[in-house]
Design goal:
Helix content is 45%, strand content 11%. With 352 residues, the chain is α/β, with parallel strands linked by helices. The strands form two sheets. It has an eight-stranded parallel beta barrel with strand order 1-2-3-4-5-6-7-10, surrounded by four helices. A two-stranded antiparallel sheet has the order 8-9. Strand 5, helix 5 and strand 6 form a beta-alpha-beta unit. The termini are far apart. Helix 1 runs parallel beside helix 2 and helix 4 packs across helix 5.
């Protein structure tokens, strides 16, 4: 079984590999660039950096390598300018993923706005086709991720993901299923009967063999809440017992006769305190019943150090003060208007 976590590329792509090793992973997920900024045409990875990354990954025997695409990409957009920008950005994601030797590139389907679901799915299919033009895929596989169903997001229903994959059958594609998203979208993976039903629906709409990556996240949101909020493994509404059932299920594991060798479970859990990342990875190994086989973790390491936590807290406090200062003049102006209005009203009453 392959278990990993999303690691940071801050400072160097190599840092993500070292973090995965120290956290006890044998797989990992990264961003190839900032996930909340449009990169433009200059966001290419230098050959020397890409070669160093691939060589170090081979040494550490880490894989699969999953890359998560930029959050701003909206392949379903009905706005022509945003769709064009999204297509270019996703094309660049493919190019960077190939440079790093990634196995999978995960992307959210997008939001449909005022389009119908059918129109949005057609737009997504065309957008992916356009993005992959003149981009030799090699061994890279594009994975469409299911969503929690917030707003007009496409992909909350497994049938929607299945329709997208069917329209892209001539490309190397598959699905990445997020446990928190499934639960928030109304799929009861918490109970034994609910999990069995969900597996049946995955088989019918997508085919479990087309799901090589699972984002293993607990949920802060109850079943059917349709909001995307991840929680630590075993601490949320899905719970430890359910994760043990998922991780040990013969249809999900790599050991059983029905298993799919190489499937990766990747945590995208929060890091509220130093060590949360390491504890979530360890929880997945333990709940899978494979703690004895897990890679050795560095118990002193966390992507969130105490010093970084303090720095983040200071930054957040500073931002809060700046926001309060910006609001102060508006509050004073509102108060003055109310006071003037009250005086005017009082004067009218006296005249009356």
């Amino acid at each position: 079984m392959r278990i990993g976590i999303h690691t940071s590329i801050v400072g160097s792509y190599l840092n993500a590999l070292e973090a995965a090793r120290k956290l006890g992973c044998n797989a990992l997920q990264i961003f190839s660039a900032s996930p909340r900024m449009w990169q433009g045409g200059s966001a290419r990875i230098a050959d020397v950096d890409a070669q160093a990354f691939r060589a170090r990954r081979d040494e550490l025997r880490l894989g699969p390598l999953v890359i998560h695409a930029n959050y701003l990409i909206n392949l379903a957009s009905e706005q022509r300018m945003l769709q064009t920008r999204s297509i270019q950005a996703f094309h660049d994601e493919i190019v960077r993923a190939m440079a790093l030797g990634a196995d999978f590139l995960v992307v959210h389907p997008g939001a449909r706005g005022e389009s119908t679901m059918g129109q949005a799915i057609s737009t997504i299919i065309e957008s992916v086709k356009q993005s992959s033009k003149r981009a030799p895929m090699g061994g890279l596989r594009i994975l469409i991720e299911n969503t929690a169903g917030m707003g007009t997001a496409v992909g909350a229903r497994l049938e929607e993901v299945g329709e997208i994959l069917a329209g892209l059958r001539n490309l190397p594609v598959g699905a990445c299923l997020d446990t928190a998203h499934l639960f928030a979208a109304g799929y009861d993976i918490k109970t034994e009967a609910g999990l069995a039903s969900t597996i049946g629906q995955i088989d019918g709409a997508i085919g479990l063999e087309n799901v090589p990556v699972i984002h293993a996240n607990d949920s802060k949101i109850p079943l059917g809440g349709r909001v995307d909020r991840h929680e630590h493994i075993g601490k949320g509404k899905i719970g430890a017992e359910a994760f043990a059932r998922i991780l040990r299920h013969p249809r999900f594991g790599a050991a059983g006769p029905e298993g799919l060798t190489g499937r990766a479970f990747i945590a995208e859990t929060p890091i509220d305190d130093p060590g949360d990342d390491r504890r979530n990875v360890a929880a997945l190994w333990e709940l899978a019943g494979l703690e004895e086989q897990a890679p050795q973790a560095d118990k002193r390491f966390s992507m969130l150090s105490a010093a970084l936590q303090k720095k983040i807290a200071i930054h957040q406090k500073s931002e809060k003060k700046m926001k309060a200062a910006a609001k102060a003049p508006r509050r004073a102006e509102t108060k003055a208007r109310k006071k003037a209005g009250a005086k005017k009203s009082s004067a009218k009453k006296k005249r009356g």
